[in-house]
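Review form for a predicted model. The reviewer records the input and the model, then writes brief findings.
Reviewer: anonymous (R2)
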Amino acid sequence: MNNKIALALLSTLINAITLRKEILNTEDIERCSYRSGIYNIMIRISVEEEASLTISEQFVISHGIPAQITSVTILYFNTIINELNQMLIPFGVQLIADYRDFVFENLPVLLDTRECSESDAIIKKTEHMSINYKLRRLSGTGFRLFVFYCPFINKETKIWSHAIPVRDCGVVLGIMYHNPQIMRQVIINEILKSLAREYNIDDINLEKFNLGLCNYTHECLSVLSNFLGGYGPLLMS
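Model under review:
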């Protein structure tokens, strides 16, 4: 791996762990929901096939059949969602993973691999997806996580994630595939920031996260479920 890329990834990893340490080491948390219920937020995850294959190869023998590749990659994301929920449940919030559009190639959208040659490829790919949803005028985008794959990475790349808010409380969060262990930390960090509506910043403190998360749930979720989720009993993803 190019030294510049390695240093950029290390910096990203350091930024990714600060808020979690604060959440896990304090009892000074303002719950967003009543103790009798919880806000359930749906997060729909889509992964490019090459990224899914590479992730699965980190955990199982190579050349598994497609069904095995998908199931192993979903397991990888389930562990991420479970770790997020350990942090979110004290706030009265939890994520529910939605894998209906898990195979990215099944989506009605085409991506240009020429973007991969640019240092801000993840920004362009995420913008492409957000424009696609706006043009389709869907009733609600919801919370969408896309993991993109590039066969080559520009050595000047410093940005590995990008989030774009979309109408109706939705968000399109793009992650560029890289080392699965580091990427895991980046995904967790970017989801936390997006839930607080603090997009594309290096880090946020616990107070700002708590306020942003509660504002998001109060404004975007209700007792009546919608495309984002809803308020109800505690469910396990």
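Findings: Residues 39 and 231 are 4 Å apart (CA to CA).
Further findings: The chain has a mean pLDDT of 82.
Recommendation: see findings above.
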